[in-house]
Write a structure and sequence with these properties.
Number of strands: 3
Distance between the termini: 49 Å
Order of helices and strands: HEHHEEHHHHHHHHHHHHHH
Shape: elongated
Strand content: under 5%
Number of helices: 17
Structural class: mainly alpha
Radius of gyration: 26 Å
Strand order of the largest sheet: 1-3-2
């Protein structure tokens, strides 16, 4: 049984790594022959057809989908066996992190490896180290430096990681909303999804409500829509003040300015240019209170994509910790304390 499991695990891994979910009978038979030769040395006396038949028919692990075309009975089973193969060797785990950390196709494998391993400290630390290396340009480092500064020395009932995630969501909305970056809509969609998931885990889902408001203000010049966005800003500013999310923000003055904006919205008789200018003034005012410089926040397409992978990797670290059978408290506390902070 152990030999059969080892065979299936290696087969599942190699085909999954090659992104092959379907494979021919001849390939499987050849694979069985090579595996048994390496393992027992006398594979020439073994009927590989009978081995395949036992796996496919008797156990239902492999299924013949068409004439001589096989696959694992479920993708989850192939992912589990792949994780089983990887978890048996620390070098394989390091390769998993190095080669597939930001590949969403491998997400479930990471979670399964964490569940199989007796202790996932090294896995998570490796994931953290690989994730930190994604912050590799001055603008990305400045972005995290701002996150650290804006959330430092605040109280309230939300963990620091939750506060940093909320700050990331705000900064990210600005990064993706500036007209120059609207061409990268796909990156914007996924990145907002990652920050939403993280803030939902560590703070409140409402923390991301401001992201769309910031983005929409750049492009919407409709009088009614602007009025609704200002209401969103006001609700959000009051929520941030109550939860003590950001330091160095004069919330009373911000709320007063927003209320003034609410009474100064240009009506439909004003030109489109006037209304767009008003929207720009609104967003610049909002960002100034949070000490966000538009120029410093404009990322290149490559930086946006890298930041997207960075957020995905951090979310995967959080999910992997949740799926792990065991992680020492010291290890997780350390990772949590360093997440979304610039690396020395």
């Amino acid at each position: 049984i152990n030999l059969e499991l080892a065979l299936l695990a290696e087969l599942a891994h190699d085909f999954f790594a090659a992104n092959e979910l379907f494979f021919t009978k001849d390939r499987i038979l050849e694979y069985i022959q090579v595996f048994l030769s390496d393992t027992s040395g006398d594979a020439k006396y073994i009927d590989t057809d009978r081995v395949l038949e036992a796996i496919a028919i008797q156990q239902g692990i492999l299924v013949e989908r068409a004439k001589d075309i096989y696959s694992f009975s479920h993708l989850t089973l192939q992912e589990y066996l792949t994780a089983k193969y990887i978890s048996q060797d620390n070098r394989r785990i390091k390769n998993l992190v190095r080669e597939h950390l930001t590949d969403e196709r491998w997400r479930e494998v990471f979670l399964l490896v964490a569940g199989i391993k007796d202790n996932s400290d090294e896995l998570l630390l490796s994931m953290e180290q690989e994730t930190q290396q994604l912050i590799n340009t001055p603008k990305l480092r400045n972005l995290l430096a701002w996150v650290e500064k804006i959330t430092d020395s605040t109280d309230g009932d939300i963990k620091y990681l939750g506060k940093r995630a909320i700050a990331i969501a705000n900064a990210n909305a600005n990064v993706n909303a500036i007209p120059k970056t609207y061409a990268y809509a796909i990156t914007k969609t996924y990145t907002n999804a990652y920050t939403y998931a993280i803030t939902k885990t560590y703070a409140y889902a409402y923390a991301n409500a401001n992201a769309d408001a910031i983005a929409n203000t750049y492009v919407i010049a409709n009088t009614y829509a602007i009025a609704e966005i200002i209401k969103d800003f006001l609700r959000y500013a009051r929520w941030l003040r109550q939860r003590q999310i950001c330091s160095q923000v004069d919330y009373d003055a911000l709320i007063s300015d927003l209320e003034n904006f609410s009474s100064e919205i240009p009506d439909f008789k004003q030109s489109l240019k006037v209304r767009q200018k008003f929207s720009q003034k609104l967003i610049v005012t909002w960002l100034s209170y949070f000490h966000i410089s538009q120029g410093k926040m404009i990322l290149s397409k490559q930086e946006l994509e890298t930041f997207d992978r960075y957020l995905y990797s951090n979310l995967l670290i959080i999910n992997t910790n949740e799926a792990a059978s065991r992680v020492t408290q010291a290890t997780w506390s350390g990772i949590e304390s360093r997440m979304f902070l610039p690396v020395d």
